[in-house]
Amino acid sequence: MKHRRFLAAMLLLTLIYLPVAAQQPDSTLLTLERIFSSREFAGERFGPARWLDNGAGYTTLEPSQDLKGSTDIIRYDTATGRREILVSAKRLVPTGASTALSIENYEWSPDCQELLIFTNTQRVWRQNTRGDYWVVDLKTWQMHQLGGDAKPSTLMFAKFSPDGRMAGYVRENNIYVEDLTGKKITQLTHDGSRTIINGTFDWVYEEEFGLRDGFRWSPDGKSIAYWQLDASGVRHFLMINNTDSLYSFVIPVQYPKAGTTNSACRVGVVSVSGGATKWFEVPGDPRNNYIARMDWAANSEEIVLQHVNRLQNTNEVMLGNARTGAVRTIITEKDSAWVGVGDDLHWLDDGKQFTWVSERDGWRHVYLISRDGTNVQLLTPGAYDVESIERLDEKGGWLYFIASPDNPTQRYLFRTRLDGKGNAERMTPRDLLGTNSYNISPDGNWAFHTYSNIDLPPATVLVQLPQHVAVRELAGNKALRGKVRRFKKKPSEFFRVNIGGVELDGWMIKPYDFDPKKRYPVLFHVYGEPAGQTVRDRWGGRNKLWHLMLAQQGYVIISVDNRGTPAPRGRVWRKIVYRQIGILASQDQAAACRVIRRWPFVDSTRVGIWGWSGGGSMTLNMLFRYPELYHTGMSVAPVADQRYYDTIYQERYMGLPQDNPEGFKNGSPITFAHQLQGNLLLVHGTGDDNVHYQNSEALINALVRENKPFTMMAYPNRSHGISEGRGTQQHLYELLTRYLHEHLPVELSAN
Predict the structure, then answer these.
(1) Domains annotated on the chain, with CATH
(2) What is the pTM of this model?
(3) What is the mean pLDDT of residues 90-104?
């Protein structure tokens, strides 16, 4: 009887749990929920890490074992891996608080006896650059919050003076220094306001020059050099918030649109004890020239700045006398298109020489230039581009840099002699095909090396140089890599497509059950502008996973880089699009599409395209200009009219609209809206401070005027990334996926 009862119970349990087991999701198949509503694919992270003792050690953040939800700062001996808790989270609980400070960034004083913590941060434009700063004395464990009676989250860019006795920071557009012993605060500038901006930048300088931190300590710690912007002539673009209160309100953004007035910019030096600022006598109209870079020139007497004209085809590298304000030009870069801003200017030989990256011979190369500009030596000869300088090992005599001479989709570490003798040698092992990035120690003996490829998520290891020996794993991402390997998928393929004397790079993801005898719908992913390259052999995060999901559902996903994208294929490749953004790139994309449509497995009646920002613009261009090629387009946050975008970006590549009206007109997709024939999904955040919602509204008017049907989705108060608010990302990608299924179906109807 008991036996029968036991069997009956087991049968009941089987009946209950068998359907559940049968309904368990297939972990080899991707879903939108898994990609966008979980952290399943977040992966491991390493850092932020800081080198100590010239590379003998390093610190990083790790979860605290004592205070759940907090982090400890851990010190590792680089050679042995010996681990110690340098700063326990328990030491970071302010008086009267119940929790430790959340460390969003940190900095060590020069003698490593004090710690500066950035916490309680708030977003300013793209990044969280405003917050609270605390100084922790590692000898006494006393904690001190910078700013005195400052309001919470109002300090920016705090950093130690070179002797560690003071900290400088920006507060509400003024610069302050604070004595760390006596806690005395000295205000160095007093005219900061909404339009007078000291030590930081307006929207356009941050977005297009990558400038946020706008002041620099002199090496002797006695002075501070800083930028000042006068935005009083810049018009405000008014964004409307309709949902965060009972009545709508206006959000004004200082935003100079192409051809309009810029902020006036100047650079000066002020003593840390206070007093008047000595302004540098930089020639030209400060509203029609830019100071795109500035720093001390390897001493406390001179600063070096890069003075760029408004058309951005001339960059004068100047030395400025901090005492008199006089400036002199030491080198001038000119180009018939545009010049880049030098991010790789590094001083050597006690300031007698500096490195400089230039395209003057048709390739992006590193030069060694004397302080007066008279002697110029090429360090990286050859028909290839240098992507970036990673480290100068002056003692060893080596220049470390990133390049990829043979494959523009990949990146590798090289080194060459600083004396210009010999050939560059590749440091990255030959089997690490893909994208490699490095954080090299000051002594050049070690590096945090991160590697990924298009099908493999990144992993970070400590390597010893120059042999590139892997010493220990720092963030292996084994779990994530294992999941990705188990997906139902085919390896991504790279290809080149010949469009008539020009070969374009591309990648392709096919369905896991691909049958070459079948014909598949194709979705192109596009960007196509000078600010980005989509065809890279590196892990693509959520977009990669979404593309994989679509491939699992039966789509072929393709991306092609047209000329004008920033691939390491030489100056002509990148700058051939000058004054015709949106025009030549569209021609290249269309030419590639024509070739691909003829591939035997491509269904030429089901070709779609999608992109974001510049890719959204390109999607519109392709759908409007070539309606016979593309049947469905999904455009997210596009620039519909180039006149609506900002001065620095648009004028760099197009000139001024007053001087190139036909280029601006013919490069803007709105001009060709009347040619729409296919299916268009237009998506935009109404709070987009980068590509204003105005673009989509103007396009809507044009489409309505032409009686063209389309679908529109507005996300209230979302910015350019359309990520704010619970559920937004999944909702957006569900919208894109649903639209794709409806208008570019995998299976054709029997009818």
Answers:
(1) 491-640+677-742 (3.40.50.1820)
(2) 0.94
(3) 94
